[in-house]
Every structure is written in C-alpha cells, then in structure tokens.
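Problem 12. The chain below contains 404 residues. Write out its predicted structure in token notation.
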Amino acid sequence: MKSTTPAVVMPRALPDRTLQRIRRAFPVLKRVTYLNSGTYGPMPLPALRAYLSAMSELERDGVACARPLAAEAEELRAALARLIGAQPAEVAFTGNSTDGLNIVLAGTDWCAGDEVITTDEEHEALLHPLLYLQRIRSIRVHRVSVTHEPEAMMARLDGVRSGRTRLLAFSHVTCESGARLPAAEMCAWARRYGIRTLVDVAQSLGATPVDVTTIGCDCMAANGHKWLHGPTGTGFVYVRADRIEEIRPAHVGAGSLERADAASGLAEPWSTASRFEFGTRSWARAAGWLASLRWLERIGQNRVVAHMLAMGDQAIAMLRDCEGAELLTPTAPGGRAGLVTVSFRDHDAGAIGERLSRDHGIVTRHVPHYNALRFSMSHFTSADDIAHLGAGLRHALGGQASRN
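Solution.
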C-alpha cells in the first residue's frame, strides 16, 4: 500500500464478486456482523497462516529457523515507510500506538511549566501519558473540544496557545466521534510557532490517506491490529529525520546503540529511529503484518478507502431514518474515515450495544463519553451488514425502555 492516495477519496463500493472473495478470508463473518475493526481488525486467513507458520518455525527451531525473518522485518519497515511517505530510517517498530506515543512523550526533555495542547476526544493511549507527565514533570495539558469546523478548530488552538506551548498532540481521526481532524492545517499552525507535533494515526492509517509530508508532522504513532489487520502487538513510531536527535530513548537495550564500550563508557544511540528499538522481538509478528499489508495492497488502498466510505454513506442514510438517532460523525467524506458514531435520544447506548450483540450477533463499540455506539466500516463490510444493523437497531430501540 503506497502513499499515493489523494487527500480525499470518493465513496465507491467494491464489486460484489470482489467483496465476497474478501469476506471468505474472514471466517468470523459467518458467525457475526463484525463492525468493530476500529478496536480490533481480524487478520485475513492468508496473513494469519503466514503469521502462524512464522511463529511455529521461530518457536520450534529458535535461531536455527531457516526462514529469513529478520529480513522480512526490514521489508516490513520499508513497506510501512512507503505507506506513509517516509524513509525506512524514520520508522521504528513498537508494540502498538501506545508504545509509540510514549517513546516521544517520555523522550522529550520537559521543563516544569511546559504546555501541551491536545483534544477532548483522545484515547487513553495519549491522554493517560499526558496526565502522568503533568503529575510527575509539572507540565500543563490543555484539552480543546473537537469541532467539525476546521476554522473553529484552529481558533480553539489559538485560544490556549502560549509562549510555553511545546507540543501539539492529537488523533488524526478521533476514536470517539470518528471525526477526521484537519491534521495538515493543525501541524502548519504549530510550525508557525515552533511547536512540535505528535499525531496518533491509530484510527486513520489504513482507513484514510496518511502521508507525513502532506500532514507535516514531526512524529506519528500507529498500530497494526486495527485497520491494517495485523497481529496483536504490532505498531510503529515515525520520527522525522531532523527530529530524531531531539528525542532521548527512554528504554535502551540490545539494538538501540550504534556504538557502546563498557571500558570507556561510550553509549551512542543510532542516528536513525532504530535507537527506539531494544531487546528481543518476535519477528513472526512482522511476517504476519507484512502478509496483511500485501493482502491490502492486492485490493488497492484507494479501493479499500472508497469502499469504507461507501459503507459509511449507507450506514449514515440508514441512521437518519432511525428514530431518535443523532449522528456524531461528520457526514462529508473528507470529514470522516472508517468510523460512524451515533447516540440515541433518551436511550442507554451501552444497553443497545449489548442487545445488538446478544440478539443479533452484531459487534460494535460503546462510547461512554457520548453515550453512543461506534460502528466500524471495514473493507469486508457489506450492504447486507448495514441492513442487518438497521433491523437490529429498530428491534433494540423498540424493546428498550427510555433512560428517563
């Protein structure tokens, strides 16, 4: 999947024959209507087989493993760099987005009184490290409310900026409402004031175009187990080449240092993002993730994104006809990615989600922050899935007592 996708892809569903072939690679779809890739995207069978084969070889044969797993890991690094328009030397493997965010946050040389701007829709992966830094390093965290209007979003950033603002950290696509924030404009704003930028792309990479040059960020954290359908425990952090030296590795071990000497005390980290990698890693995960990327490449990034948006359009149209439903996700294709979030007037969204799962086999995610449900549109989502969701919602809403 190369980063050649235009900034906004127009909705277009995959041909039925292609979609049915894709769906056969996900056995879970025979049992449930799976609308939660934004939490965990199941692996397609070809990628799962590659992952299990690599794991079996590695765990059975150890270092006698004939498969060149380390070479495959470097192939994965190059593929991920191409995906976001970066250089391989700017990409370090992590266990998930949380790892990547912590690498940047813990590696920054904070002073008491430094300030960070973030939003009120951040996942704990970003929010909790910031809160902890606020406690132990006496920094100040400003949370601005997400708005779907770019101009209003920029005004809110202006409203909290000060001479002590060091970092702007935010999600490209928020995990709560599914809004696609104006990342390029936000990063350009930060550059004007010498503010560093950290973007969490957990909910965007694989679901909407992501290009580090277009966005213009200093750092980016991603994971593999959502929209890229890789194994659990996969992720990466991107650090722009001219920012790598600014971030001090918080964890160091075998593989982190280019030169080390116990006698002289020399400890010199790599000048690349590899300085953020340490210790023994499971190369089998890299083999599995690489296989998932190849699966998506064969479908085509533009087609994957266009299909997700088309399914999102169908879900939005269905929800507009659903009594009491209040959409929280922007409806324009450029304002969203793979997520559609909706609340239900006078109803407990958590209870609705439980009924959808129990009575209809529909897997969704509860969003307590908004008393809402979140639906993930994946490249395997079908029009039948949306129709089933609509029928399930009508049943669940009709059978649930009002919160009042």
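Discussion. The radius of gyration is 22 Å. Students who got a different answer should revisit the alignment rule from Section 12.3.
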